[in-house]
Amino acid sequence: MTAHASIYQRMSIARLRETAATKGEHQDKAARAYVDRLTDMELERRLDMRHNMAGWHPSSPGFGDGTGQRTEAVDAMYLAYEKGIVNSEWHDRAKRAFGTLKPRGQLALLLRAGKADRRLEGPFCATYDQMAAAIGRFAQMLDFPPVQPIKPELCRDPKTGEILRETKQIKDEETGEVSQVRTSSPKWVIKGYKDGQAIQEAARYARVELLLQAKAGVI
Known about the structure:
The structure is a single chain. It is built from nine helices and four strands. With 219 residues, it is mostly helical. The strands form two sheets. It has a two-stranded antiparallel sheet with strand order 1-4.
């Protein structure tokens, strides 16, 4: 861990948000640290808080300037933890930030965050491929609906954008030949993850979306 990385990890989340939205040499690193902090808090909210378990936030909430020294500008989140208020306004902000992402990106980014924390055991020790193969189980564990956790989308022709239709097989009674006939029903697909690599790619895209919002001061 570099000295700069350590400073950003100790910096208060409010200071991180402010720095991430301010153009300058520290913006990129602050934005990454801020988005990672929000991601950890959303994972904490979905895993720990809904089961009333102790939190496992990967870094101390910290004090005002990121030096670790107590100053007058004490982090509001730290004060909340001291008072036993674990579901802070920053957890609500993390929830709203994730609400701007599509469910596919939300789930992928949370899965990656779970695997990144070395203190977690059990399901998160699975490989990305194993997660993709049992995505319903992991979705339910992270408080997504257990059935069809990723919303279905209409299938469209990539060139024309025309909605594709379901087909069914029709067998000719005389010749025995089977042919495909298009029906009037639209074709739907659930864009899950074909493998572990797809989860990691979806997580990267989702993180980039949050980084752009952090730099714009939106989240």
